[in-house]
Amino acid sequence: MNMVNLTIDGVQVSVPATYTVLDAARRAGIKIPTLCFLKGINEAGACRVCLVEIEKARALAAACVTPVGEGMIIHTNSEKVRATRKSTLEMILSDHNRDCLACIRNRNCELQTLADEYAIRNITYEGEKSISKFDDKSFSIVRDGSKCIKCGRCVSACNKQEIGVLSFLNRGFSTSVGPAYDVSMADAPCIYCGQCIIACPVGALHEKEETEKVWEAINDPSKHVVMQVAPAVRAAIGEEFGYPIGTRSTGKMFAAMRRLGADKIYDTNFGADLTIIEEGTELLGRIKNGGVLPMITSCSPGWIRFCEFYYPDFIPNLSTCKSPHQMEGALIKTYYAQKKGIDPSSIFTVSVMPCTSKKTEASREQLRDSDGMRDVDVVITTRELARMIREAGIQFSALPDEGPDMDLFGEYTGASVIFGATGGVMEAALRTVADILEDKDLPKFEYKIVRGVAADVKEAEITLGGMPVKVAIAHSTAGARKLLDAIRAGTAPSYTFIEIMGCSGGCVCGGGQPQQPAQVLMDIDIRAERAKALYEEDVIMPERKSHKNSEVMSLYKDFLGEPNGHMAHELLHTHYCKKEIYPDSLVDQQ
Ligand code: SF4
Ligand code: SF4
Ligand code: SF4
Ligand code: FES
Questions:
Q1: SS (H, E, C) 519-545
Q2: pLDDT score of 51
Q3: Is the Cβ–Cβ distance between 555 and 331 less than 8 Å?
């Protein structure tokens, strides 16, 4: 490897020639502040917060985009550097709605942290404020232009997804960031993956908060509140309470949810096991009866919207299975209501999800019963759950380990836990389908070949029932695009089954998960760390195949009948519709 030698703040370092000054400083243990930089996503050199002084250079240089050079002598902390950074921050803050106390990012805001670190006590550049837009029309995402610092991280995150909904609009002082034609996020071809929220360093983008609705239901004696929580939440919620990335907090998570006051706490993993039975049966049916193949998973609502907007020709390939929490929601309002003798209209179902797209998913017409009753009344994100826990004064770290309520929907297997990571749904399905085809309890059921985040498209050939079967996994919509384009072009192998998740790494890095500052993300692959937490839980589960979930099997016997049967279709399956991108009617209004 070609190396260069340089001196940073008197420390001599030797680094690969491909490094930037920012990388080299980190190697030397020197922190350079950043704001617009987000490793692997936004490397635009726009904010100038990372300026450093390079001897013999004519101007200060942005460390995040300046390549290292042999013999460079760099000062990251000179008086000139500090003064310039401070005045840059003051300028950014001069056109910023600084209501930190009421801001969703209070105490977790990269701009606020920098203002504190640089001891900004007064803003010397007060002047005209730019006109900003507040958009809370969508079910998933709120955009508050008064907090936007025009760093472009969201634009790059959306481009990295190869969706490109967000861009810079107008020029100069009138510049803003938003969808084309400055339409609401509700009217843009946005999939609500929330990757822009995860990228945003400040409070300009956030989920549509629905915690008040949950508190209201909990405090309403006429409501019976049933909460469920997705597998990926346990792999990240600890981060909200100071635990290291990758800490699995299953026990404390359930204990905290119980103390919020819901009547019943369940794990969406039950719904995930059920999904595998339904989806596996659907797949085997399609193989046997010449149905549309490859069949593609349908758990990720971001992916489903992406398909409906951008690849509607693949709608017949989608599994008709509802996502696990929607299945569980439908069963809570029917089977559970019957068993417990509760009027379904007084049941309030809350799903705690790592995902912002699930908020919009839960509002879909197709996910209501014939009277318009929703399967899931409210979806809150992992971040919202953490806020509720804080608001209730619960000391997360002091909680004992507890589990979900163990009646009706309490049991779950290791297969359902791994749903939260890319490759997890595929592996869970393979564990069950292989047993069914071989008609035995196969002792080898880990499919490590489908795991991991190194590539956004993975493929494998698996032997199922003596037959070689080709499968593929894509995570991120950029990966999905690559895979589907190859299928459209006829250059892909003939796959039987495909798993697609809308977010890179899968649900563990969904748009509703805790936000980590860019400085932390420079050194860690958060996708792999969080996934590890789920695989850890898988191996300690007494049963690791979905069809071994005895409560799921009793549910079929007592209530649903056959997998993919009439009742199962009524409650657990759905359909999809092509969506139009910026219809003329909308553009004409602008
Ligand atoms: S975005 Fe950050 S700096 Fe701005 S108001 Fe919110 S917390 Fe404060
Ligand atoms: S939610 Fe996803 S698709 Fe929508 S703007 Fe953000 S990154 Fe783009
Ligand atoms: S919305 Fe957030 S990420 Fe996007 S440009 Fe504004 S501050 Fe940056
Ligand atoms: S210019 Fe380097 S972090 Fe913004």
A1: HHHCCCCHHHHHHHHHHHHHHHCCCCC
A2: 98
A3: yes
Q: Write out the two tokens for 421.
A: 């990571």
From the alpha carbon of 22, which atom of ligand 4 is closest? 2
**For residue 422, what are its two tokens?**
């890319």
Kindly give the number of the ligand 3 atom that is closest to the alpha carbon of 152: 5
271 closest CA partner among 554, 530, 572: 572
What does the block give as tokens for 281? 């049966």
pLDDT at 588: 67
- Which pLDDT does position 145 carry in this prediction? 97
Question: At 437, phi and psi to the nearest 5?
Answer: -65, -35
CB 54 within 8 A of CB 72: yes
State the maximum Cα–Cα separation within the chain, in Å, rounded to a whole number. Answer: 80
Ligand lying nearest the CA atom of residue 63: 4
Tell me, what amino acid is at 367?
L
Which ligand gives the minimal distance to the CA of 25?
Answer: 4
CB 63 within 8 A of CB 52: yes
pLDDT tens-place string over residues 416-456:
999 999 999 999 999 999 999 999 999 999 999 999 999 99
Query: Residue ranges of the chain with pLDDT lower than 70?
Result: 587-590
Nearest to 503 by CA among 84, 187, 196: 196
Residue 126: the pLDDT is: 79
In the three-class reduction of DSSP (H, G, I as helix; E, B as strand; rest coil), residue 265 is classed as: strand
> b/e per residue, 354-363, with b = 16+ CB within 10 A?
bbbbbbbbbe
- Residue 33 and residue 86 in contact, taking contact as beta carbons nearer than 8 Å: no
Which residue from 47, 202, 515 has its CB within 8 A of the most atoms of ligand 1, so it is best to mutate? 202
Counting beta carbons within 10 angstroms of the beta carbon of residue 370, is it exposed (0 to 12), middle (13 to 18) or buried (19 or more)?
exposed
The CB-side HSE value for 153 (13 A sphere, CA atoms) comes to: 26
Query: Residue 162 burial (CB < 10 Å; 0-12/13-18/19+)?
Result: middle
- Give the pocket of ligand 4 (CB within 6 Å): 34-37, 45-50, 62, 64
Tokens of residue 287, six digits? 């193989």
195 lines ligand 2 (CB under 6 A): yes
Alpha-carbon gap, residue 388 to 460, rounded angstroms: 42
| pTM of structure | 0.97
8 A C-beta contact, residue 501 and residue 469: no
Phi and psi angles of residue 587, each rounded to the nearest 5 degrees, phi first: -65, -40
User: How many Cα atoms within 13 Å fall on the side-chain side of residue 93?
Assistant: 26
pLDDT of residue 582: 87
CB neighbours of residue 159 within 10 Å: 17
Closest CA to 273 of 350, 337, 325, 334: 325
Cβ–Cβ under 8 Å, residues 91 and 125: yes
Task: Give the pLDDT of residue 124.
Answer: 85
Taking the C-alpha atoms of residue 513 and residue 199, their distance in angstroms, rounded to an integer, is: 12
**Domains in the chain, CATH or no CATH each:** 3-77 (3.10.20.740), 93-207 (3.30.70.20), 211-572 (3.40.50.1780)
